Amino acid sequence: MKMTVNRIRVVVLGSPRSGKSAVVVRYLTKRYIGEYSSTGDFLYTHRVAFDGAVSEVEILDTSNCAIRGCLGEHVRWGDAFAVVYSVCERRSFLAAAELLSLLAQARLPGCAAVTLLGNKRDLEHAREVHAEEGQELSLRFGCQFYEVSAAESCAGAALAFHALLREARALALLLPAPRRKLAAYSVSKVIGTIFGKNSKSVRKKRPSLSI
Ligand code: GDP
Ligand code: MG
Fold it and tell me: May I ask which residue range the UniProt record assigns to the signal sequence (predicted)?
């Protein structure tokens, strides 16, 4: 059978130290390293085959984009979004709610695949956010939701990313790209004006790795 290839761009957003890099690296390499560089965005590309077709997947592991002013650009760039918080840090959960709200304003409903990931579920003794709260937030924004532990296992991150990619591919088949991108364009201008203007130079400096 001849395989078709489509491209899916995933943006990973969330508070600093919520475990974005740990979750991405766990998904891509099945390993947990513990400490990751947090000096800038990191772009990974890899190919995934599922449901009889191949997708070229680009994953952008972001860092401090609210401060660096590149959130608008990321929202415009992505087809799919993983919003990560730490179940041990309520502040990161509130930031995740804000990011989901921004995405909902910036993308027409149903035009982007979104998943909410509550990371660090291994740290039960330090938990500040109940699983039900994550569930409720995801229901409010109509997105997927998983609690995962990048430190403890590969399974959660793999499940969450596969479900996100499946939804992104389904949307790509349903909606032509211009419509998806147009939906992101106008409101991301608004985000750009809120968060800053130096996004072009940030994109040029982004390191990348193919796996
Ligand atoms: P980022 O800034 O969101 O990319 O967060 P990092 O991936 O750099 O992780 C921040 C810190 O949390 C690091 O010290 C990680 O080792 C730790 N961390 C990440 N995921 C987990 C997890 O699932 N459980 C535990 N216990 N620690 C984690
Ligand atoms: Mg990081």
Answer: none
